[in-house]
Amino acid sequence: MNITIKTRYSSHPEDFKSYGTKEIRNNFLIEDLFVTNNISGVYSLEDRLIVGGIHPVDKPLQLEAVGQLKAETFLERREIGIINVGAKTTIEVDGTVYSIDHKEALYIGKGISNVIFNPSKEGKTFLYFNSAPAHKNYPTTKVSREDAEVVTLGSLENSNHRTIYKLLVNSVVKTCQLQMGMTELKPGSVWNTMPAHTHDRRMEAYFYFDLKDENVVSHYMGQPDETRHIWLKNHQAIISPPWSIHSGAGTSNYTFIWGMAGENMNYGDMDTVNPSDLK
Asked: Is 246 assigned to a binding site?
C-alpha cells in the first residue's frame, strides 16, 4: 500500500492563543507532502478535508482507501480535486486517461472506484490534492488555466499584485462542497490575501510552491485580534480553521493553491478585516 494519511484534530481559538511555535507547527503545518512513490497527506477534522501530495517517480500509484474513511474505496463517499504542480502527466479514472499539464486541475467525483496516477518521463510528477466528503456524484472534469475564472487584484505599489485562477469552483465545475484555485503573485509582490478575511462556514488550506532557492513565506493565522505567524518553505501546506485569517508574505513572489470545504459554496462569503484592525 503506497498511501499514508495522518489525522489532525481541530482546535479551539481560545486554546490557540496559548500555542507556541512548536504547537502551531504540529497542529497546522504539513511539511512532507511529496514522498517518493507515495500518496501522503493529512486528514483534518476541520470539515474533514484531506490535504495531500502524490509523487509517483518510477511506478504508477493507485488511490486506495485509508483507515480513517472506513470505506471500500477512497471515493466511496468523497470527491477529490487535483492540481498538477510538476511535469505533465496522466491520470487514469475508471479506465479513462486524462493528460494533465503543469498548473492544470482535475476534479473526480464521488463513486469512482479506480484512480491511477502515472509518473512523468522525468520522474517529476508532483500532484497536490484536496478531498472532501460528498453527497452526490458529479462527473470527472479537467480544468485548464484557460477554462478557469480569472481575476486580477491588488497593485505593485501595495506589494500584492496577483492573478487568481478559480479552477474547481461552482461557477466552473459542479462539485458537492470542494472548491480549489490557484493564485500567482506578480514579480515584486509578496503579499497574498491582504486585506485578510475569515469565513465561519468553511475552512481553508493553503499550499505554497514556485518558491525558488532559499525563499520562504511567513503565513499569518489566528483570530484578527490575536494573530500568529509560521514560516513555510516550498511544497508545504497549512490548515486554516474557519475562525482564522489566512494570509502571507514571502521573501519573493510565489504561487499558492487554496482549497476550501464546508457549508457554503459562495466564493465571496467572507468577513474582510481591515489591515489596521489586525493585532
From this structure: yes
Taking only the tens place, the pLDDT of each residue in 33-66 is: 999 999 999 999 999 999 999 999 999 999 999 9
DSSP for 177-218, written as a single string: S-EEEEEEEPTT--EES-S-EE-TTEEEEEEEE---TT--EE
Q: Is 102 annotated as a binding residue?
A: no
| Phi and psi angles of residue 122, each rounded to the nearest 5 degrees, phi first | -85, -5
Q: Is 199 annotated as a binding residue?
A: yes
Distance CA 178, CA 110 (A): 12
- Is there a binding annotation on residue 235? no
Peptide bond into 195 cis (omega under 30): yes
pLDDT tens-place string over residues 175-230? 999 999 999 999 999 999 999 999 888 999 999 999 988 999 999 999 999 999 99
Residue 78 pairs in a beta bridge with: 133
Largest CA distance in the chain: 53
What pLDDT score was predicted for residue 163? 97
Does the pLDDT at position 264 exceed 80?
A: no
Burial label for 147, CB within 10 Å (0-12, 13-18, 19+), is middle
- Are 236 and 279 in contact by the 8 Å Cβ rule? The answer is no
For 176, residues 6+ apart whose C-beta sits below 8 A from its C-beta are 79, 109, 110, 132, 133, 134, 135, 136, 138
Going from the N-terminus, what domains does the chain have, and what CATH number goes with each? 3-277 (2.60.120.10)
In 3D, which of 267, 273, 235, 234 has the Cα closest to residue 252?
Answer: 234
Strand partners for 126: none
Which pLDDT tens digit goes with each residue over 64-92? 999 999 999 999 999 999 999 999 999 99
